[in-house]
Amino acid sequence: MNELIYNIPLHRLPDCQTGRLIVRASEPATLIAALSAEDPTRIVAVQLLSLEADSEPMNAWAPGLPVELTMADPAAEFPSLYRHVNLLDQHPVRVAIPVRSGFTHAVKVALALNFAVRLEPDQPTPALIEELAEVLEFYLHQPTVAQPIEYFQGTLLGFYHQEPVPLWAILDEDPAWLRYIADDGTESLYERLAGVEITVAPEAGLEVWMELVLAAGEECQTCEFRQSCGGYFKWPRRDYDCAGVKRLFGALRDAADELRRDLDSVD
């Protein structure tokens, strides 16, 4: 059985004696001090919750440890990304960007600074679908893009290799192995699945979660993109209209088919 990974606030570190950890904090200096006595093999990654924080103490700390920079308001916060560029000298760095109005500029700035991107798409409105389509076009055809945008990258590779990967895995929200510890110590599934009863044993794996819980509805069962989505866009509202996100999946599938044909023609 895979060991569970717990996403925890820094002040709950003494409470978590088992499992691997993603530790989230606002102040890098405090984070470093608290983790100095911790077994480094337990730390999977750290999340910096404030882009206004001074991340300079992290520059030469724990080389190779992944760092995720989180955003709440991408349209307003993107200029703060510049202050964290030096982290790339020692760490793989990813920016978590919620899909909200104006997020496109934040994505482009993050990529220009050589940060990877993890989109947090939620259940996008028609207007946000159009913005996602613009970002997808940029990802597929802008030659200067050198870092992945997830979920686009993982989904494209899944289509290309004809081995689709559900968004729960691509976006690091797999309920089979990830748990979230709230500030008050309450344990739950991660983010959009918070409050969902844990009725499936972790060792059962994501496919069982999809079959019994996540993509169990009739619309998901008959959807051509079930294996790539896994019911992701049916949370939290089960009545969400998936027409727009299906268009994005279709564009990624077409791009994968085109890439495969181009590479086959070279052979």
Q: Would you give an account of this structure?
A:
The protein has 267 residues and is α/β, with parallel strands linked by helices. The protein has one domain. 34% of the residues lie in helices and 15% in strands. Strands 7-6-5-4-3-2-1-8-9 form a nine-stranded mixed sheet. Helix 3 runs parallel beside helix 4 and helix 5 crosses helix 10. The longest helix has 24 residues. The mean pLDDT is 94.
Structural class: alpha/beta
Estimated helix fraction: 25-40%
Order of helices and strands: EEHEEHEHEHEHHEEHHHH
Low-confidence stretches: none
Q: Strand percentage, roughly?
A: 5-15%
**DSSP summary: helix tally:** 10
Main beta sheet: 9 strands, mixed
| Quantity of strands, as a count | 9
CA(first)-CA(last) distance: 41 Å
Mean pLDDT: 94
Order of adjacent strands in the largest pleated sheet: 7-6-5-4-3-2-1-8-9
The radius of gyration is 19 Å
Q: How many domains, in number, for the residues?
A: 1
Shape: globular
Question: What is the element layout, followed by pairings?
Answer:
Blueprint lengths: L4 E5 L10 E6 L2 H8 L7 E6 L18 E4 L3 H4 L15 E6 L4 H10 L3 E5 L5 H16 L7 E2 L1 H9 L6 H4 L7 E4 L5 E2 L17 H9 L3 H4 L4 H4 L13 H24 L1
Helix pairs in contact: 3-4, 4-10, 5-10
